[in-house]
Amino acid sequence: MGKVSVDKGRAFEDTVELWLSLRGLAYERGIRVRTMLGYVAEVDFLVYDRLGKFIVEVKNLEKPVDRDVVFKAWNNAFALGAYKAVVVSASGFTDAAVSLARRIGVVELRTLDEIIADIESLRSKQEMLYVEPSITAWSAMRWAEDALGGRRLLIFKAERSESVEPLYIPVYHVKASVQVEAGKYRDLRMLASGLTGLPVAYDRSSKRIWEALGELVDLPGDLVEVYRVHAGRRVARTDIVYRYGEAVWAKMVRHLTPRGLLRRVSEKPVVVEMVNVYPTLEQLDQCVATVEGRRMLREPPEDFQVKEPIYSPGSVRYFLEVALKAEVKALNQVYVPVFKVKLVDNKGNYRYVAVAGWTREAAVYESRYFA
C-alpha cells in the first residue's frame, strides 16, 4: 500500500498522539502529577516545546464540550505551570465554551476534524524514505521455520510457517555525541524506534535485532515510561510518588525488582536505583551500518503495510538526552522492512515471529509493539 491516510476509526487519543508526533513535539501521555496547589492533576498529554510546556485534554463525548471542561483545563494548566491548554473535542464545543476560552486567552479549542486535517497536511509535506528489503517474504518464512521453529525427533519440524505479513516500521536515524569517559566523547550513529522511542541494536553473533527494553514490553505502559526517564539513575520513593502516584511506585517494585532492574540503595529515606539495560555503543553502530548499506526507496512496495510512528522526534531526542546523556546533532526518520511470520505447531498452537528484512542475513526483530 502507499502512504498511510488517517481514518477516524482509530482510537481518538491515538490520533491526537499521532498529531503531536508529526509536529515533532516531546510529550508524556496519561500522567498524574501533584500540582503546586497540592492536588493530583490527571492530564491526557503533557507536551514540551520551545516555549515551555502545555497540556492537551482529549474529550470524546456525544455532546459538545461545555465551559466546565474549558475551566478545568485552565486550572490544570495553571497548577502545572503550563503556558496554555489545548482541548480537543470529537463533538465540537458549546457557545459558552468558545466564549470562555476566548476570554481566558490561554485555552485553545480544536475539533477532531481539524486535527485530522492537520495530520494529513503534515504527512503530505514529509519526504518518506523506505529501506529496500534485503530478503523476500518467502525467505523470511523459510528462515523463521528453520531457525526458530525447532524440531521434533531431529527430523520433523515442530512448527511450520503458515503466513507472512510484510511491514514497514518507523525508525529515527540519529547522529549524536555520547560521553564515554570523563572528558571524552564519542560521535555515534544509532537507530531509535518510532514505536517505542528506544535505541535499536544489532547483535551479529546471535543475528538478533533488539530494543533495549525488549524484556519489558509486557509491562504496563506507565512503567516503561518511568524506566525510560530514570534508567541508570538513583531516585527517591518520594520523588516517584510525587510525580506518578503511589500506585506506580507499587507496580515498579512488583514488576521491576524480580527482573533485577530495581535495586534498593537505602531505607531511610527509601532510594532505589534503576539498572540500565540499554544497548552498547558498538551494537548501535552495527545496526546503523546495516541500514546505511541498503538502497532507499521513495515509495514502499504495494504489499507492505506501513506502521505510523508513535514516538515523535521530540520525544526521542528528549529520551536520548535524558537517558543516554547524548547530544543529538541530527535526527531523520526512515522506514525499515520487517516480516511478521506466523508459526503453527502440530496441535494448532501459533505464535508470531518478526524477521528483520533490512539485514543481509535474516535476523529476529525483538519487539511486540507491532505484533
Largest sheet: 7 strands, mixed, barrel
Number of DSSP helical runs: 10
Shape: globular
Q: What proportion of the residues is helical, as a percent range?
A: 25-40%
Order of H and E elements: HEEEHEHEHEHEEEEEEHEHHEEHEEHEEE
Overview of this protein structure:
This protein folds into two domains: 12-125, Trna Endonuclease, Chain: A, domain 1 (3-Layer(aba) Sandwich); 130-212 and 278-366, no CATH class. Helix 1 runs parallel beside helix 4 (112-125). It has 371 residues and is of the alpha+beta class. The two termini are 19 Å apart. Mean pLDDT is 84; it is low at 1-10. It is globular. It has helices spanning 12-22, 67-79, 95-104, 112-125, 137-148, 221-230, 237-244, 246-256, 281-292, 313-323; strands at 26-34, 40-49, 52-59, 85-89, 107-111, 130-131, 151-152, 156-157, 159-181, 184-193, 199-203, 208-211, 234-236, 262-266, 271-274, 296-297, 305-306, 326-345, 350-356, 363-366. Strand 7 (151-152) and strand 8 (156-157) form a beta hairpin.
Précis, in short:
The protein is an alpha+beta fold and 371 residues long. The protein folds into two domains: 12-125, Trna Endonuclease, Chain: A, domain 1; 130-212 and 278-366, no CATH class. Helix content is 30%, strand content 36%.
Attribute tags:
single chain; 371 residues; alpha+beta; Trna Endonuclease, Chain: A, domain 1; seven-stranded mixed barrel; five-stranded mixed β-sheet; 10 helices; globular; disordered N terminus
